[in-house]
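User: Working on a comparison across species. This one is Peptide-binding protein from Streptomyces finlayi. Can you predict its structure so I can line it up against the others?
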Amino acid sequence: MPLMGSVRLRVGATVVVVAAAAVGGWMLLPSDDDQGPAIKIGTTDASSSLDPAYAYDAGSWALYSNVFQSLLTLKTGSVTPTPDAAKSCGFVGGTLTKYQCELRSDLTFANGKQITPADVKFSFDRILRNDNEVGPRSLLTTLKSVSVDGQKITFNLSSGDSTFPFKIASGAGSIVDSTKYSATAERKGSVVDGSGPYTMAEYKNGKIGRLRPNPAYKGAVAKTGRPIDVLYYESSKDLQTAWESKEIDLTYRQLPPEMLAQLKPGEANVRISEQDATETRNMVFNVRQASKFHDVNVRRAVAYLVDRPKLAQDVFHNTVEPLYDAIPKGVIGHSTPFFDVASKPNVKKAKAALEEAGVKTPVSFTLGYYLKDSAKAEAELLKKQLEADDLFSVKLVEKKEWTAFQADYKAAKFDAFNVGWVADFPDPDNYSQPLVGKNNSNASAYENPKIERLITKTQAASDRGSTVDDFKAMQKEVANDVPLVPLWQTKDYILSNGKVGGSEYLSDGTGLWRLWELNWL
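Assistant: Here's the predicted structure for Peptide-binding protein from Streptomyces finlayi:
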């Protein structure tokens, strides 16, 4: 988000911190006559599941922010959670371990059923029942239990967590109909029962999602959205072809880097939105006993050899920026600890680290990646860099399906793997606990007591600006212990034709899609 570098967030510990502007709220009442034809969006980010308890990926969460409703949401241009399904929310007491929301009493799902506090509790409970490797469970590590009293929902936390309002404003907070979803199993298929600004009129996995304005919606969104068709493409080249053939009105993630590098502002009938985003890419190590990367010195050797500027230039045509910290540039707490350790590839340091590890060279290991867009070229260049001085022998393992790739890295079938990360909410905690904390979303089996103490300390700080030094200390330890190697960060590039307005508000790097901001000019 453009203003992230100057964010200073404060969460009150003893008072209700957010409240609805008006009890009545807003109700969308679109007319079939004035909606116009559907705006067509092209993307390569397919959804892995329409069930919010079982998916934790950018494609799925982009849909959730439109077809489901959470107690809180982030309005366009804001970094403060505001009520959506809730009438009000806030911490109770001074320890940041109890968060309470009062649900609005006038809400219904799109199917007509009234939304109750029991539905909210049900939605969180089914996530808590899952293993850490399933869905967004790893995001809710501080949540112990949820209780209900009348219209009030209380979230009981295991430790102080000032970021918790952001977490329930994300896809993890999606409220589902307890009569339509199983408490213990994923809901398969293409049917969605939510209460967001849109309904899912039709869905064909990996092909198309037809979203239509929900006339029953009441919440934070104040204006009627247009009908939206989301078209999914296998590759960035396919997305480029669809754009150039005018098959779509707008593109969002991911056009080919070589095309992005040649974009020229001011081109006729093309609107280009280049937005600061917080998407990062990491090489993650499996640190289990049987892995080659159980030894920290072997991990350090890899970090010493990676040439990030070469990746950015040769693979991505400088449309990405080299990253030397798990927290990206533009987010509070960012520093450059990996650069400080090795500002450029250092073969001498790598050899010394492997000698310290007492391993025979070249060290053979598997590097997994999801075969999409530039991932293969990226993996091949990393292999070349690591093998250049005969210190490593890298076997590349490509997976053509995202779900298969995700299942394999969670099952520890790779020694290392490359994977991207899109922020769930605008706070450095989202680049800490989910990536390098205990039971992290990468399922890397990594755990570091020093990092755990700093995660707990920073989560408990209501003044987010006061956490900068602790986050820097945490990232210095990450660079020392190397559970992952940050590779690059990138911006969001959104192209729209001259007929569509509002594309600059579609996304702000938080993983939310604000489809209701799009309109015909």
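For your comparison, note: Residues 436 and 478 are 8 Å apart (CA to CA).

User: Helpful, thanks.
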